[in-house]
Amino acid sequence: MEDFVKVYDNSQQVNSYIKEKDLQKPEQTILNKYFEKIKNSVLLDVGIGTGRTTYHLSGIAKKYVGVDISQGMINGANENFRNQNLDFKVCDARNMSIFDDNTFDVVFFSFNGIDHIEIDERILFFNEVKRISKKDALLVFSTHNIQNIPKLMRLKWSSHPIIFYENFLKFLKLKFHNLKRDFSNKKVIKINDGVHNFGFVLTYINPTYQKELLENYGFKNVSCFGYPSGNELNSDELINTTDPWIYFSCIVNN
Ligand SMILES: C[S@@+](CC[C@H](N)C(=O)[O-])C[C@H]1O[C@@H](n2cnc3c(N)ncnc32)[C@H](O)[C@@H]1O
């Protein structure tokens, strides 16, 4: 079992996710933009955790299926929605052979779940999306922004001594956990960014490069949305944004 799955399986993580119910602003923007497509769709929600997005998507879609690689998270989702007869399964986004070809109108992989998949393996997910999607399906996912790293790694000043002390400790830990990593002039990097108590290493990507990859893989109408604003970003804004993560929506051209 991969290290990050052990972290998500842990009951403390499950309990912290169980409290989360709100959509992130870019998810809301995308939901508004594609409401007609999402309404009455057969929708696959990948990496659902305990079902934060389920609250918002399952009532709109005609058929909703939620999957996660972590059995602990799926148990949490089942607990959250125990009276609602929803379909939750343990499944790895890189191998979704439990689903037939041409099944889904919409696929979500929200809140940076894809960042647990190394860059060379992401193509497995994108190929699976193409296989299980109907023609012109909608794909939505988010990924961490490499352009946010200077902000993330900087020592944050506070005039409050305790807060400054905590910031200083976090700064040292970030340095320590990433001692051997070179973040300069890269399109893709792996980083331990401190989430879940420095529990795992994530993949961060240059958002313009991510957009190009999607277009090269044949996805159409690629749009980008910043977090936390939820605003759609044009190409110039994408080059300059230091938002911590970016949502992408695109149309599956299979
Ligand atoms: C940051 S959490 C987000 C959970 C949920 N989407 C939310 O927004 O609250 C990322 C989730 O992606 C799941 N995940 C990571 N890699 C996955 C994979 N290869 N296949 C399926 N789920 C995966 C993790 O188990 C975790 O539940």
Quick structural overview:
It is built from twelve helices and nine strands.
As a percent range, the share of helical residues equals 25-40%
CATH architecture of the largest domain: 3-Layer(aba) Sandwich
Strands, count: 9
CATH class of the largest domain: Alpha Beta
Major sheet: order of its strands? Answer: 3-2-1-4-5-9-8
Judged by helices, strands and strand pairing, the structural class is alpha/beta
Give the terminus-to-terminus CA distance: 32 Å
Residue stretches low in confidence (pLDDT < 50, at least 5 long) are none
Identify the CATH homologous superfamily of the largest domain.
Answer: Vaccinia Virus protein VP39
Number of domains: 2
Radius of gyration: 18 Å
| Ligands bound to this protein structure | S-adenosylmethionine
General form:
globular
Largest sheet: 7 strands, mixed
Number of helices: 12
**Percent of sequence in beta strands:** 15-25%
Mean pLDDT: 96
Would you tell me which CATH topology of the largest domain applies? Rossmann fold
Secondary-structure element pattern, one letter each = HHHHEHEHEEHEHHEHEHEHE
Describe the structure in your own words:
The chain is an alpha/beta fold. 37% of the residues lie in helices and 22% in strands. The chain folds into 2 domains: 3-144 and 207-251, 3-Layer(aba) Sandwich (Rossmann fold); 148-197, no CATH class. The chain has helices spanning 3-9, 11-18, 25-33, 35-38, 54-57, 71-80, 122-132, 149-153, 161-177, 195-198, 207-216, 235-240; strands spanning 42-46, 63-68, 87-90, 104-109, 133-144, 188-191, 202-205, 220-227, 245-251. The protein starts with a helix and ends with a strand. Bound molecules: S-adenosylmethionine. Residues 8, 17, 20, 46-49, 52-53, 68-70, 73, 92-94, 110-113, 116-117 line the site of S-adenosylmethionine. S-adenosylmethionine is lined by residues 8, 17, 20, 46-49, 52-53, 68-70, 73, 92-94, 110-113, 116-117.
